[in-house]
């Protein structure tokens, strides 16, 4: 009996164990190969998906969002461990190499001989005596140099240049013995030298001087480059041109993004091809790469000239390039193909005060590859002793550029490559996170080509010698007046885009709402032509609207309802008195709007407005002006750059979410930035200015405008 009980109890234990094993097997889920491949591809593009992306990915792979979440957590942990093991292996190998080199040098020092005579080398004590002797001779020569220099100055001659002014054979040395380096080194970022400066106006950047206070050095006063440094720069330029050409010609270096099907660089193939030239990704950086092709109605030679001239470059991309300036223009070099090279400072900013600017010092080179084909390549260039102060991301431009091909009809085919490594000091604001981290629509090639196409259309239409059929001349009677109004609208866009970065922010930001950033306020003192002199207060707010960008753009351009949200109208209707089309899309135009004054038809206020829309979003920018100023602008007898305007307006952007079959434009939401500029006092009354009171006033104006727009769009 006991035996039978033992047998039965053992059977029960066996059955219980089998049951537990079966339960464990039922609870365990192994992903299929197809699921793993899709998850791996998505992880390379977006290692931190949000809830919506996890839900969409789960629906696609028939997995629960929690399974997706745990897989990505485990994958990030696995990737981190793998990277640490690789880094440790590299460090161990480097340590062993340095130990071997150290041992080799110690052995060589024991048997060192004098090169000229072949005799025994100096001992340590003898070396110290020789060094002291050389220092004494150097001090004597310096004193003699100063004595002769003073003697010449006293006799009315020219003083001799200081010792530090002579060019060293291996390039200019610095206080910490660092040389200029080029290639893919990262660039920290400069602050503007003065809050009074406007677009194109950067003249100084901070120079890092050890053990001294920082001081500013004008960009044009950098020390001259030695011949060796020039050769190194031209060699870097040649390599950048070759890499960009390979990126254009070799299709295997590209793959479709698993998020939105755009072309991005395949890191594996890139590293195989360019491992000896540059690194694909730093330990803490993220890579942004893209490729686009567009045909524009501008001659190829004109485009090349505009890309090499920094002022024309900034004018060609007014909503992207805030500032651009030549630091050094290098002599051309002809090694089979003529290479033009220059070192350029460039600051870029888009969309909102919430988006930090990006700044680069780049080496830009131009080569004519064959007849009617030009290559322009950019690569980051790190100058010694330049310490840029900014909270913006640290950005490195890997070889990027454009291939410009002349077409028979006066147009040009442009192939654009962007390849940048970004190390964010802070994560992008939640409103713009999808746009920059996942969607690739931030500073990618798509934005550059869309802007290029739009601006080439604008420049062509502004240059024609007659009124097109789509124009409504109205109060503008001459073709000179038309050109003046179009140039004034172009400058208005540039000034507004420059203002929107709001570098000198005040501490008056309001608390953020669910779909809004609150109100950001900045202040500057203006004394330059083109804007009214005095203290100017800028206020901006960014928000998300559950509507597509074209619908928001049409609403803001609708003159029939403008008086319901625009404080400039004082509740009175407005009338369009002139309109000039600036692109193939008739919605892109600059126009004059006249406001009415209550019961009569007389008005003392005109509004100049410039609006445009494209595949990524749009802008509506406007500035009020008196009748006399409007008459001067429409007459075309005065330089438009001297007409004082203070633009305000809206920037419309896609939200950056991936497109779908139902919504090919990518997401159904709009990121809207509203920004106003107000002249609060002239320079003579700045002492009586109350900052907090004016900040509260402008905050109320922009907040009420936003609320009215949201209510009219049923987005409360």
From TrEMBL:
It is found in: Nucleus. Residues 88-144 form a coiled coil. InterPro entries: HD (IPR001356), HD-Zip_IV (IPR042160), HD-Zip_IV_C (IPR057993), Homeodomain-like_sf (IPR009057), START-like_dom_sf (IPR023393), START_lipid-bd_dom (IPR002913). Residues 1-15 have a biased composition (Basic and acidic residues). Its main location: nucleus. Residues 24-83 bind DNA. Residues 226-461 form the START domain. PROSITE patterns: HOMEOBOX_2, START. Residues 22-82 form the Homeobox domain. Residues 1-29, 171-194 are annotated as: Disordered. The keyword Coiled coil applies. The keyword Transcription regulation applies. It comes from the Eukaryota. Keywords: Coiled coil, DNA-binding, Homeobox, Nucleus, Transcription, Transcription regulation. Residues 172-194 have a biased composition (Polar residues). Belongs to the HD-ZIP homeobox family. Class IV subfamily. This is Homeobox-leucine zipper protein HDG9-like.
